[in-house]
Write a structure and sequence with these properties.
Elements lengths: L3 H20 L3 H25 L4 H27 L14 H16 L11 H20 L3 H22 L5 H29 L13
InterPro entries: HyfE-like, NUOK/Mnh_C1-like
Membrane topology: Multi-pass membrane protein
Subcellular location: Cell membrane
Length: 215
């Protein structure tokens, strides 16, 4: 039987993969990092299904594997082949990210500590990780100038939302999981199409070039 320690350890591994996604300069590396993170999330869903006796999470893990581990990274990698990997500095000095990350984890811990729900009584570290991903997603968007790298900020936030739902509403109907997966897929398709149009319009993937409106 899966232990609670193992589940919380997998959640901690999600934070490590998020750091890789934010810190890496190349979009291809970030896509691979996201695929690894999503695989850890799938393993987390599978483990939670055993720990919480929530058989719906087995279906969630299968759905997340095809959408997050396979489809989204493949879509990003396909776009990388069509668009250049521009070499420019990040918007935020990476030295500032080191003190920010512990603050994010501390704030997330303080948010979940007062929560008194039996369903997550022994899984508060995992719940704190799910909240941390909202802040890490915002941090990814703010710290990157490459537009495709900013898209990963949304991906981190979506993974955090997915984990929160798995912890707090794991008995939700399968239709909810289908809706989440469908929304994520269509959101990624729309964002990738927009990135492609932006590049062909201004011949740049640097968000700094979008800072001024041109009539």
């Amino acid at each position: 039987m899966t232990s609670l320690l193992f589940v919380n350890s997998l959640a901690g591994l999600l934070i490590f993969t998020s750091i890789i996604i934010i810190y890496t300069k190349k979009v291809k590396s970030a896509a691979i990092g996201y695929a690894i993170q999503s695989f850890v999330l799938v393993a987390l869903f599978f483990s939670l299904a055993d720990v919480m006796q929530a058989h719906e999470l087995y279906v969630w893990s299968i759905s997340a594997f095809f959408t997050k581990v396979v489809f989204v990274p493949a879509l990003i990698l396909y776009m990388v082949k069509k668009l250049p990997e521009n070499d420019f500095s990040d918007g935020l000095n990476k030295a500032w990210l080191l003190p920010i990350l512990p603050i994010v984890m501390l704030v997330s811990h303080l948010i979940v500590e007062p929560i008194n729900l039996t369903v997550v009584e022994n899984l508060k570290p995992a719940l704190a990780v799910s909240f941390a991903h909202f802040f890490l997603g915002l941090l990814c968007i703010a710290s990157q100038r490459h537009i495709l790298k900013q898209v990963f900020g949304y991906c981190l936030m979506e993974n955090g939302a997915h984990l929160s739902l798995a912890l707090l509403a794991n008995n939700a109907p399968k239709l909810v999981e289908i809706g989440i997966s469908t929304d994520a897929i269509f959101a990624m398709i729309i964002m990738v199409v927009l990135v492609n149009k932006i590049y062909h319009k201004i011949n740049s993937l640097d968000s700094k070039d979008l800072s001024e409106l041109k009539g």
